[in-house]
């Protein structure tokens, strides 16, 4: 394809966009790509309309509005705050400098915001979205998408499909949506909602003490790993595996949150954490002991962790002073505490508000395990060198204790 440079000289023809013009013999020709002489000025705000053919469009400097229409198009917004719609086809859209809005439309599209605070939407198809620098918003839409936010404090909505998300440096908010997703989080304050499906939520690095994550597994059998900081991991429905790694972490095995946070609430929570304040849940959202009855695996790792165990769950505190929090009532399948150390760990039993404080007893099974009973009903199996009823702390739900969720 031969580029055509059109100069705005006196008496010459200046063309911006993609047009057809009549030749002297009456035949029509189509400009496949319109560029400009770099030494000549171009209008600051170019409205560019494509055709149903495959095209290459370079907009130059200015706040441009570009509709590439059909075909497999390549569009470069160059400088300025541009709005680019790829239309149908497998398009490649480049925002370049400025705060750009890129819409892939139908097809398997590649969107790159580059510099600036950009908004990228893949819509239908298996799309690749890259935010690069700036505080960007990425929405994969439907399809199996790949989203890389780059640097900055970004919002990433993977959408429906089996998506791969790379949350790079910055304080990011990520929502996996429906599908079996791989969601990666890096240094910073990150809030992640895995969504429906069997998701993997994993860090780029385990050893960053400045990282702090809030991760909701929601529905599905999820594999969730925290960061090197102080993390809150909520498994949600399904059989989940939670690993806190280093830091002082909170691990909740089952459906412990009354509802998921909305995007606006996540943004507000991120601002709270950025200010160095503790998380305050929004109105109508509460952490409550609601065991989902599905086997979850919790591993606190290094640090002083709190592990909330329900029916059929197993917990390993790892190194540090860990708290194992058990549910009220008899369980069909006992919760298991796999590494209790009476010299540094605690076991907390939360009973229902308004109920009589239960009688705790412990049975030594003779094989290195002990069974905890509340009013004669077994609630947990504990692997420990020794354990007695005095090692179990009773907390009434609704009290002022930090464990009374």
UniProtKB/TrEMBL annotation:
Recorded superkingdom: Bacteria
Keyword Ligase attributed: no
Skewed-composition ranges (Acidic residues): 139-154
Stretches for region Disordered: 29-52, 68-158
A GO-annotated cellular component: extracellular region
Keyword Secreted: yes
Designated name of the protein: Leukotoxin
Annotated source species: Falsiruegeria mediterranea M17
Protein encoded by which gene: ltxA_3
């Amino acid at each position: 394809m031969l580029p055509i440079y059109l100069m705005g000289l006196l008496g010459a023809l200046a063309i911006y966009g993609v047009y057809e013009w009549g030749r002297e013999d009456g035949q029509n020709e189509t400009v496949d790509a319109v560029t400009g002489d770099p030494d000549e000025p171009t209008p600051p705000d170019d409205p560019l309309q494509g055709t149903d053919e495959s095209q290459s469009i370079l907009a130059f400097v200015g706040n441009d509005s570009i509709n590439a229409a059909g075909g497999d198009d390549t569009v470069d917004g160059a400088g300025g705050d541009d709005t680019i719609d790829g239309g149908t086809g497998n398009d490649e859209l480049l925002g370049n400098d400025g705060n750009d809005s890129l819409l892939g439309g139908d097809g398997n599209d590649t969107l790159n915001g580059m510099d600036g605070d950009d908004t990228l939407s893949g819509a239908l198809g298996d799309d690749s979205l890259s935010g690069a620098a700036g505080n960007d918003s990425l929405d994969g839409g439907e399809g199996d998408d790949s989203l890389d936010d780059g640097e900055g404090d970004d919002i990433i909505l993977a959408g429906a499909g089996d998506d791969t998300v790379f949350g790079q440096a910055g304080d990011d908010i990520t929502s996996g949506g429906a599908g079996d997703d791989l969601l990666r989080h890096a240094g910073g304050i990150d809030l992640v909602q895995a969504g429906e499906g069997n998701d993997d939520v994993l860090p780029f690095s385990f050893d960053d003490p400045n990282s702090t994550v809030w991760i909701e597994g929601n529905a599905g059998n999820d594999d969730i790993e925290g960061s090197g900081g102080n993390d809150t991991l909520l498994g949600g429905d399904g059989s989940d595996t939670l690993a806190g790694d280093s830091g002082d972490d909170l691990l909740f095995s089952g459906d412990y949150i009354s509802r998921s946070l909305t995007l606006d609430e996540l943004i507000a929570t991120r601002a709270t954490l950025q200010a160095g304040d503790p998380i305050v849940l929004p109105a109508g959202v509460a952490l409550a002991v609601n065991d989902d009855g599905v086997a979850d695996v919790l591993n606190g790792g290094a640090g002083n962790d709190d592990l909330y165990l329900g029916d059929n769950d197993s917990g390993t505190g790892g190194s540090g002073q860990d708290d194992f929090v058990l549910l009220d009532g008899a369980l069909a399948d006992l919760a298991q505490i796999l590494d209790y150390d009476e010299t540094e760990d605690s076991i907390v039993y939360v009973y229902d508000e308004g109920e009589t404080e239960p009688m705790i007893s412990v049975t030594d099974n003779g094989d290195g395990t002990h069974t905890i009973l509340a009013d004669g009903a077994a609630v947990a199996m504990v692997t420990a060198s020794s354990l007695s009823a005095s090692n179990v702390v009773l907390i009434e739900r609704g009290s002022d204790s930090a464990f009374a969720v």
